[in-house]
Each structure stands twice: as structure tokens, then as C-alpha cells.
Write a structure and sequence with these properties.
By secondary structure, the chain is of the alpha+beta class. About 30% of the residues lie in helices and about 40% in strands. It has a single domain, classed as Alpha-D-Glucose-1,6-Bisphosphate, Chain A, domain 4 (2-Layer Sandwich), CATH 3.30.530. A 7-stranded antiparallel β-sheet has the order 1-7-6-5-4-3-2. This is Ligand-binding SRPBCC domain-containing protein.
């Protein structure tokens, strides 16, 4: 399977500084992830702004009956501009997620996510991606946009 490339754009009704401060803290991902994923931060990084080389461990249940650890590394950080996380251990053969931030005006920030992912297990992963994985990934980003609206108004 060729890796998929997805883009998601979200407008956050907050300043660039406020938006960056929220999204650059790994513990806030729990607030943005749908509850049915059972997302749990396992690393002792609460209250720490991300930095290059930071390793963040989560536990997720992507579907009933299957729980897995997910370890990502923050591989690039340019404060108030972008950061990148790459999966080191987890449910995907590839997960490369770029988060870009751009001030639209004093009280509005545009956030652009560029995601490259690939399901594991070769042809079985390709089938799983077509049947449910792609839909789940889209659902996570749709839920995140809804959570942003609820959190930020």
C-alpha cells in the first residue's frame, strides 16, 4: 500500500500564542480525541511544552477488543509555526503528522494538519484501510474539530 496523505484545516478562534500553548502540550490531545478510542497518556509529560526528541507514550483502543501502546517522537519543533510527530511504535506501519500554525488575525489562528499514514500488514492492511482504518482516521480529525469548537467557542 502506498502511504495516504491527508490534509485538515481548522480555524481556532484564539491568538496564535494561545493556540500554540494548547496544542504544544501532549496532555491536551486527550481533550481532542474521541472517547471511543480510549486514549490515555502514559508518559510523565503533563505541563511540559513539547521539544524536539520528546518521546510520548499513549495507550489506545482503536476498536473493541484491541488495545495497543502508541509511542511517538516529536521530531521537529519551530515554536508558533509547526511541529512534527512520528510514530516509533504503534498501530501503523507509518505515521508522520505535521501540525502547522498561522495567525490569520490577532484572535484567529489557522491550523493545518498534514498526515501521512500507512496501515500495517501489507495486503491485509490495505484491505483494513479500505474497510475501516481510513474512516477511523477521518473520524478522529472530525471529532477533533468538534472538540476545538466546544473548547474554544
Amino acid at each position: 500500500m502506498t502511504p495516504r496523505r491527508l490534509e485538515f484545516s481548522t480555524v481556532v478562534p484564539r491568538s496564535l500564542t494561545e493556540t500554540w500553548d494548547f496544542f504544544s502540550r501532549p496532555e491536551n490531545l486527550e481533550k481532542l480525541t474521541p472517547s471511543d478510542v480510549h486514549f490515555e497518556l502514559r508518559s510523565p509529560v503533563r505541563g511540559v511544552e513539547m521539544y524536539e526528541g520528546m518521546i510520548v507514550q499513549y495507550r489506545i483502543r482503536p476498536f473493541p477488543g484491541f488495545t495497543t501502546d502508541w509511542i511517538t517522537e516529536i521530531t521537529k519543533v519551530k515554536p508558533h509555526h509547526h511541529f512534527i510527530d512520528d510514530q516509533r511504535v504503534g498501530p501503523f506501519a507509518l505515521w508522520h503528522h505535521q501540525h502547522h500554525f498561522r495567525m490569520r488575525d490577532q484572535n484567529t489562528t489557522e491550523m493545518l494538519d498534514v498526515l501521512h499514514y500507512q496501515a500495517p500488514l501489507g495486503i491485509l492492511g490495505t484491505i483494513a484501510d479500505k474497510v475501516f482504518v481510513h474512516r477511523q482516521v477521518l473520524g478522529i480529525f472530525e471529532a477533533r474539530e468538534k472538540a476545538i469548537k466546544e473548547l474554544f467557542g
